[in-house]
Every structure is written in C-alpha cells, then in structure tokens.
Amino acid sequence: MYKFITYEVKHNIATVAINRPEVYNAVNNGVTYELQNAFEKIAQDEDVRVIVFTGVGKAFCAGQDLKAVMGDEKDSFENILKKRYNPLIKQMRELPKPIVARVNGVAAGAGCSLALACDIIVADEAAVFSEVFINIGLVLDSGSSYFLPRLVGSKKAFEFASMANKIKGKEAAEMGIVNMAVPTEELDKAVSHYTEYYAKAPTLAIGLMKQMLNKSGNASLDEMLALETINQEISGSSHDYEEGVNAFLEKRKPEFKGK
Q1: Dihedral pair phi/psi, residue 64, rounded to 5°
Q2: Whether residues 58 and 87 fall in one domain
Q3: Which of 198, 219, 241 is at the close of a domain?
C-alpha cells in the first residue's frame, strides 16, 4: 500500500518507518502524505495501543529532501508546512496513544522535529540530533520552536537552533531531549522496554494524560484543575479503572484492555 514508508501492526504495537534509506530517509511529498495516512489509520484502529516511529537503514530522518523541493516538488514554504508538516505534527500530538521514537541515526531538521513530536525518544548513543535549518538560512519549523525550549530551556534552545549544533544521543539524554540513549546493539531492547509496557497499559487514561500534558504548558492552574476533573470522570468510568481496582483488591496483576 505504501511506497515511501513501512507499516506493520503486531501485538498491539504499530511500527511506522520512513523507507528511503538511500537518502537517509529524507522527506518528500510522498513520505508526509503516507505518514498522515498511517497515523489516521492508527487513530481508528483500537488494536493499536502504542506506536514505534523510526527510519529504515542507518538514519532516522535527515529532514526535508532538498533535491525534491527544489525540483519536481517545488512549492511555497507556506504550502509545504500547511499541507504536509503541520497536519502531521498535530496528528502525532493529538493521537491519544503513546508514540515511541526509535532514533537509529541522524535526526536533522524536520527529522529532528518529528522525533521531538513523539512522546518517548529512545536513541542510539551514536545518533545525531541537529536543527540544521539555519545552515540554509531557514528558521525552525514542524514544531521544533515549540518542543525544543520546553525540553532544554530558551537559552540552550537558541544556541542549539541558531548554531545547528550536533548533539549525539548520549548528550541528548543528559540534556533531557531523549528518554534513553543506548549502544546500537541494545536499541531494540530499549524500545521494547517501553512498547511492552504501553501495549498492555490503560491506553484510555494514557491518552487523556497526553492531552493534559500537551495543554499544561499554556494553561492556568484553574484550567488544569478543571481538565483533570473532566478527564478523571472519564477514566473513572472506564473498563480499565474497574479492572485496576479489582486486580488490586484481588492481589493480582491487572489485565487492561485500553478502554
């Protein structure tokens, strides 16, 4: 079905990978539209409870394919962002399921933004994160101006963005950009540490928490207390809440359905 990405669902885990290894998974029109389609499908599939987002080969994503955008896919930056990147980033952030980025190599420019849009980032220690926009006279896009300062603070974010610093996976973990950085041979095991948990977790409550944390950076205490009240009522009416309480009382491990 897909030409530029791979898509697989197994054991409640959807794995989505950009599949252009010959250009380090640089993004063309097809990649963005196929990713939009895949995340729409994931949103509607109740069997999917966690997503792994990665790249085929030696890179996560090298960012926008400059040859494509200067050639057959030439378009205004406004159209590129409004039609391609911005809807995709919003899909990822609004998806009520956790997304785990498996950063197996370079994550540059829009590729860095795609990683930052995920909920969990597991990186190869040798992976490189870089906001390379400034190297061709452009500004941050695809959400990096939102995500980056929230992760590292405004001054570090300014340096990172304006100098296109290359941050390796281990340093990115120390800075709080990624959750975990591991040697190459341990990457899949580290990713499974998260996916095995989320595939069996109370997905409804996790989706609501994702929504709440998305809003908390720009909301007042009163607004967050109100949202907590609404979402606690929703989660407290769920199958997983009832199962969790019964499991606790019966001294057994809960079997959550994600509902």
Answers
A1: -60, 140
A2: yes
A3: 198
Tell me the longest C-alpha to C-alpha distance in the chain: 64
CATH number for position 106: 3.90.226.10
- For the chain, what is the domain count? 2
Domain that includes residue 189, residue range: 5-198
Identify the residue whose tokens are 């300014």: 158
| Residue 255 lies inside a defined structural domain of this protein | no
* Strand 167-168 to 5-10 pairing: unpaired
What does the pLDDT look like over 188-240, one tens digit per residue? 999 999 999 999 999 999 999 999 999 998 999 999 999 999 999 999 999 99
Same domain as 98, residue 19? yes
Residue 258 CA to residue 61 CA, distance in Å, equals 31
Classified as helix, coil or strand, 222 is helix
| Strand order from edge to edge, sheet including 167-168 | 107-108, 128-130, 167-168
Cβ atoms < 10 Å from Cβ of 184? 13
Distance, CA of 7 to CA of 124 (rounded, Å): 22
User: In the prediction, which pLDDT does 34 show?
Assistant: 97
Asked, for residue 258, whether it belongs to a domain, the answer is: no
Cα(187)–Cα(122) distance, integer angstroms: 7
CATH number of the domain residue 219 falls in: 1.10.12
- Residue 82 scores a pLDDT above 90: yes
Residue pair 195/52 in contact (Cβ under 8 Å)? The answer is yes
Query: Is 235 inside a domain boundary?
Result: yes
